[in-house]
Amino acid sequence: MKRLITTGLLLSMALTGAALADGHLPLKELPDVGDRDYWVPDEVNAEGKLEALQEVVGSAAQTFSGTQDAPIQIALIYPSADTSDFWARNYLALTKRLDELGIEYETTEFASRQIEHSLQSTYANQVEQDADLYDYVIFGPSELAIQADNIDKLSANEGFSTYVWAFHTPLKDLANQPDAWFDFSSAAGALTMCDYMIGRLGEGVTMAMNRGIPGITDNQRSGDFKSCVEEKAGWTTVYEHYGEYQREGGFEGTSLIMQAYPEATTIHNANTAMAMGSVEAQVAMGKEKDIFSTGWGGTGLELEAIRRGELDATPMRMGDDVGAATAEAIKADLEGRADELPFVFLGRITVAHDEMSVEEIDALEQEAFRFSGVGALER
Q1: Helix (H) or strand (E) holding 163
Q2: Contact, 152 vs 175, CB < 8 A?
Q3: Cβ distance 272 to 297 under 8 Å?
Q4: How far apart are CA 317 and CA 297, in angstroms?
């Protein structure tokens, strides 16, 4: 049985203000995420545990060895109402891998958009108050530092196990850590993309950026990429727009960039939603062939945009790894083997781009979406 709770809200995304002269400030007020210290996976993973789980996730399922009196209850609090299909795909990967493992389950989804921080807090409070209803809670934060208190609160509850999706940098100052983190390394993806872009476009490129929400994810996806191309190849960044990971933010940012910064020949987008908004703006102005555009994650929407010639490249996650790894973690926990798991699980990342053959893109897509299916999801 699956239950879904959605917001039913359509928030206005109208941007206010104008770009300042240096072109490096957000166009609207954003939440203050503060200064936080983070661990990186190498600091917290016991040797060999990550590689062991990656091997399990990439292999055929081995059936759950125990018995169940009733289906396990799983609550998912995540921004699955956003444009990105990362959340929907990993939900499918989670459930299909659980089916393969022979584990009975029921899920309750608490859906929001990535910008709806307060709504996620409301959901976290509701789940924590109803702790006796759940065995596992999967939390996909709208932004890590903003949701730190909710992660701490959920992790402190001994009535269920707590897993965090889409972040791999545990906050050092949490009084209570979740049981495990599941993600792809945005930092590793940024450096992979940096090397590809320099090899593809060379030195001295003029770039603009549609960044997400200030915080650890955007610092890695956008900040690490920017530092890498500037330091290694002398790229120049003329403008940085905070689009809050929304399609509208990518559209507005790209429209502004094309009008105010026509010298920018490359636009970096920090997620799928902004990439889709960005190419929409370019197509509307007939500029999609003039600007080299990147996405993030290699979702079905991005791959379709690459095939259409609207998006040029994206760091592509083997997307279903996160959901499948979470199912394997649940199995290990039920079998009393939780101590075998890494604290932080990371999936694989490669680059998908417009110079690949159809067969090459198809092969990547088949591997990445082996549970959730190829092509754009119907949602």
Answers
A1: strand 161-165
A2: yes
A3: yes
A4: 5
**pTM across the whole model:** 0.73
Distance of CA 331 to the CA centre of its chain: 24
In the 8-state DSSP scheme, what is residue 138? Answer: E
Residues 309-330: tens digit of each pLDDT: 999 999 998 889 999 999 999 9
Q: Which amino acid belongs to residue 101?
A: L
Beta bridge partners of 107: 2, 74
Runs of H (alpha helix) within the chain: 41-44, 49-57, 86-101, 117-129, 148-156, 186-201, 216-218, 225-233, 247-260, 272-284, 300-307, 321-334, 358-368
Q: How confident is the model at residue 132 (pLDDT cuts 50, 70, 90)?
A: very high
Measured CA to CA, the distance from residue 246 to residue 16 in angstroms comes to 15
- b/e 34-46 (16+ beta carbons within 10 angstroms → b): eeeebbebeebbe
Q: 316 - beta bridge partners?
A: 297, 350
Radius of gyration of the chain (CA): 20
18, pLDDT greater than 50: no
Residues 279, 83: Cα–Cα separation, whole Å: 14
The pLDDT tens digits for 69-92 are 999 999 999 998 877 788 999 999
